[in-house]
Amino acid sequence: MEFTLVILTFVGFQIILSLGLNLQWGIAGMLNLAYIGFMAAGAYVTAVLVLPKATLAGGTSYVLGLQWPFWAGMLGGIAAAGALGLVVGVVILGRRLEAEYFAILTLVIVIAMSTLLSGQPNLFNGVEGLINIPQPFGASLSSTSYGTWYLLMVAAFAAVVYVLARRVQRSPFGRLGRAIREDETALQVFGKDPFRAKLKIFVLGGMIAGLAGSLTVLYVGAFAPASWAVGETIFALSCIMVGGSGNMFGGALASAVIVTLFVQVPSLFNIAASNPEILAEVQVMATAILLIVVMRWRPDGLLREPVGTVAKLERRGGLETAHRRSPTRAAGPRPGAGEQPDRLRPGSSPVPVSRTPAKVVPQVRPAEATAALEVRGIAKRFGGITAVDDCSFQLPLGGIVGLVGPNGSGKSTLVETIAGFVTPDSGRVLLAGRDVTRWTPARRAGIGLTRTFQSARVWNKLTVTENLLVAAPGSAREALWRGVFRPHATAHADAVVLRKAEETLHEVGLWPVRDQLAGELSGGQRRLLEFARIVMSGATVALLDEPLAGVNPVMGDTIVEQIRHLNSTRGVTVLLVEHNLKVVSALCPHVLAMDAGKVVAQGTVQSLASSEAFAEAYLGKRAPKTPQE
Amino acid sequence: MSVLADAVGFGIVSGAIISLSTMAMSLQHSVTKHANFSHGELLTVAAYAMFAMQHLTDNVLLDGLVGLVVAALLALVLDEFVFKPFRTRTRRLVTLLVVTAAASQVLQGTFALIFGANYVTLQVPTTHAKHVGPFLWTTTDEVVIGLAVIAFLVTHVVLRYTSFGRSQRAVADDADLARVCGVNTSNVIRWTWIAVGLLAGLGGATLAVYSGTFDNLLGFNFLLVTFAAMIVGGIGKMYGAVIAGLLIGIVTSVAGAYTNQGYNQLFALGLLAIVVLIRPSGLFNTRAADTRAFG
């Protein structure tokens, strides 16, 4: 009986540990090999806070001797793990590293922690570690009832963390996290900063690990560097990936089953008795083999990540009737708690998205009626190659302008520069009269500039509807605390955006595939999804980078129609980069022609066709002088 | 003065071993385009193979040779049966990274099961230190340095002047382009892994001889130093690998000599962190980071 209690308690620790890691890995896709280090931080700090002044094994006197009550020690442990997460997160998440470098750096962190603490005899007693950590509830309970009480406490914590993790996952914040995992760059063009969301998940996951460490150290009464080898992170990760990355239930269940099995199986075969130090190795090893095998057949684990949760919630009733009855209250139960406008239209008073009607006709203040976008003397060199050379033009508000030119003429670099992905060597970019030359892509998107990419970038493992919900502005809706503590209010706010998303899906023609994963769409459908996202984002200026590339002719017509719709009905100012002159002449009354990094001609397509500069560059009366050559 | 000279001499020897491991990793990364977190185990397996061979023969060079072959075989098997299926099927690099990390744990566990979790001792001929110029080196040290130099020259000649080397560099530069130009890429990848195993095995064998005793974490403890040298030297650059390996060997050794010996690995880790955070393309990378950003 007592043995069962011990096993279940350890299962509880592992479940808590798995939930924090599943937030980081499953939702945000961060491969944090230092995860176990956060558990260690929680454990050490808790131990240090609750330990009495004592003489340690090495003869050194224990320094602090604070003797805090166990709950204060736990809070301290969780806070320490969170603080560690904050520091580490700010340093390494801020650099936007590739996944590989992120993994290597986290490995560096945990090894460095281990090396430092092992050689540090004073505070944490080096390799020997801390022992005799006082147990909560002291001697007031018999050992059996103590075991029961502790198990209940661990179970309660596990339940709380489980509910928390699920709420995070199902909230708009969790959806944002999943979009980060799928494609961070695509998120920036909708004005969302991946860094802050990642940092929040990193710190939250770290705090959960800290809680697990805290509970473990109070139960076991000892903690040493050997308890938190890198293999422990791989073990926790393996359990999650087998159970289901991003599936909180699957990850927790697999952790529970695997831990239980490992306690049971070796005792059956009596391996444990003969070789206890190898047992840990075998556990990690067998789980790693299991991981490799499962990954071969089900790369996302046995249980799938729940998708489209809010939409499903909506359809199940409840919410729907609530906001139908009172559409004005649907943005949130309190005025001001709903969707905050975080996007300014040029010359218009900010319009809350929840109220935005289908047709957006930009109200133009006469003073600013000049240009939605202006480029002044932009130049960009890569090494010795001049990609864009003193380029200037204007996009009239509500207009649609084509940008044509042979390959290598600098069109793409120009788009990258306007969108903020490439910093120009000289020149300025003005958006509705504001100088945005030094702004990040996300900040530009915040005042209404968005773009598409040459190869469509959608969030593959989000449904089509979810893609739209992520693209909609939503700093309030997507707040982490709101998703956790006010799930219903958040779902209400989300339902409002969902209605707009459904309208847009009908309009764009993606309604039949609304619940499919975006990764399953055809090339043309992805394009349509990109346009739908632009509508949802409420952007006022859109840079469309070769939207017809790789799309079949039938779908091509639909796309042309959608671009026209975006411009004329939605009032979005469009810069269309396209090779297909037929399409350009059908859509754009005004066209810019680029060659060798310069705008060499402009006018209608017809007038351009008779222009010598354009004909030379495009139709090849002489060999085009492309910068690459 | 002699403390510094000794530390530098010591650093050159460990730098030579780091260089071997780094050349292997750099070669692998340039072709397969992913980090291999089980790289260290290629070193460890060579060391254990040497240890096992000592029951048969006292000839250290022969033992070492067997170690190299075993490491090359392991590299080949790992890629063929574990990494390759993920490389070709998943589009997510991170999954592959987790798989290599899992493979590392599997191998460490296997070593522990076969050879126990405790340290084993390699019987090597004892040699006495003597002054070579300003440095204090044993014959073993000289052999280690000599082997590293030979390995570097052979790798250089093979990559630069053979048809395999040409194909290998083509695949490293652009695998798809190489394939349409008639290069048998899977064969190139296979031979690359064999070369990786041989180089890493040589690194592991020399490391084991140099350390005398080791456990199943021998190579894993060397993993981050190798990553550090690869990133500092620039991925795929053999000169970079050797220079960065020596640099890290000497820096850690000298820094360790003047501070706490137990912390000398931290200097390598610190260097790695700084390079990754500030210049992830490597110190010796001449290509501007800007050009590869957007096409």
Question: What features would you describe in this structure?
Answer:
The complex is a heterodimer of chains A (629) and B (295). Chain A has helices at 2-27, 35-50, 70-93, 99-118, 143-170, 172-182, 184-188, 194-220, 230-243, 248-269, 271-274, 276-297, 309-315, 319-325, 411-419, 441-446, 464-471, 480-485, 487-508, 523-537, 553-568, 581-587, 605-609, 612-619; strands at 373-382, 385-395, 400-404, 426-431, 434-435, 449-451, 541-545, 573-577, 590-595, 598-603. Chain A folds into two domains: 2-227, no CATH class; 371-619, P-loop containing nucleotide triphosphate hydrolases (Rossmann fold), CATH 3.40.50. Chain A is built from 24 helices and ten strands. Chain A is of the alpha/beta class and 629 residues long. In chain A, the strands form two sheets. In chain A, strands 6-7-8-3-9-10 form a six-stranded mixed beta sheet, with helices on both faces. In chain A, strands 2-1-4-5 form a four-stranded antiparallel beta sheet, with helices on one face. Chain B has 295 residues and is mainly α. Chain B has helices at residues 2-32, 39-53, 60-89, 93-115, 139-161, 163-173, 175-180, 185-211, 220-233, 238-258, 264-278; strands spanning 120-121, 130-132, 135-137, 213-214. In chain B, strands 1-4 form a two-stranded antiparallel sheet. Chain B starts with a helix and ends in a 17-residue tail after the last helix. The relative contact order of chain B is 0.20. Mean pLDDT of chain B is 88; it is low at 287-295. At the A-B interface, helix 4, helix 9, helix 12 and helix 15 of A face helix 3, helix 4, helix 9 and helix 11 of B.
